[in-house]
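== Folding task for one protein ==

=== Format: two labelled lines per protein ===

==== Paired sequence and structure tokens ====
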Amino acid sequence: MRRLFGTDGVRGRAGEYPLDPPTVRRLGAALARTLGDRARGVRFLAGRDTRESGPWIERELAVGIRSQGGALVSAGVIPTPAIAYLTPRMDYTAGVVISASHNPFEDNGIKVFSGSGEKIVETLEDRVEAVMADQSWSVSDASESAGVDEVDCRAEYVDHLLRILPPDDRRARVPIALDCANGATATVAPQLFERLGFDIRRIGCDPNGRNINLGCGSTAPDLLARTVTETGCRLGIAYDGDGDRAIFVDDRGGIVDGDAVLLMCARQLKAEGRLKGNAVVATVMSNIGLDMALREADIEIVRCPVGDKYVMDELLRRGLSLGGEQSGHVIFSEHLFTGDGLATSLQVLRTMEVTGRALSDLAAGLKKYPQVLLNVRVDRKVDLKTIEPVAAVMEGVERRLAGHGRLLVRYSGTEPLLRIMLEGRQEGEIQRWAQEIADAVTEHLGRGM
């Protein structure tokens, strides 16, 4: 059996392994056997995004969980961070989210949260996989015909968000644009921002099961940018399919990513004495310009591998309050230990209101170095240091950067790809250098793409 858990839970094409009905059902049973406490009962709170495969995956999980004496209660279509927030507060054993984030509708996935609202650690994933592989037990189909119990808990999540930024009638004439990616935030975001008092323009708020992330959302912000500039909005906010990340468009139509959000929020938290440890966690993919801007603000930056779970690990280990990714996953640990696009939106809006500055002005503090990203398809994944011609090219690039840039070369955790990221002062120059590395890798490990 291939490994189930990847960098962000279980993910694949709906209906195919590992998201075929028998495997999903057995996974539900394995989760109940691994995470459950029979003395207290085994109760899972589930949520999903708007993909057409979500309901049947939820039902199969429920059958598996019930076969082990547990119960799954569905919160329906709801953002991922809502499940992380509500699971401990409603005293569930664990939380389960059925979503493939920013992927197209054909894909889906299963993320698991502990009873304390954090993504389960890799050692626990390993235990679940070991239980899955143990053939000494089987899943009973006695409860196959039973339905899934439901609970409406969106109001509790919205109330939590309103504590970050309370409603204010003075916002009645402040226009903002929302792009909900035809995903999970479409059930919450418009109502939330109307309660806050904003005049909203809606994009991607009509999910049909197949249009999630289709030409909209955080990975396709062009329509949002046009809407902001053409309708005179103060800003635009784009979410991904499950609502754990947000990308912004400023009043001039510029894209504001997670790096800029980390900088502006770090400065504001520091000014308020709320930036724990005077440090920010960012992944290795964040632009080197963020390092320089934070250094100017006398704030330390802590780097970690790509993935919001690694950001969370560093926040917990160091006792820090802010971290995130360039992609828009931002974690404010005083609220939640996972990325929350809606909470991030409210923190940005709060910063704008407190400082009286436009988003374009706040984002201008980040001077980004040119960045080049190349993918090389590889036939195998080996340590590049052991391939002398490739290592020599990489060392040559490092020498030419001379401390005024950054080279990051890593294998994808989910695809047969080597990712090359190069930052430096001149875009044309680093493009050539990145291609030199790509050509060397292609010659020895695969073919370029």
Observations:
- The radius of gyration is 22 Å.
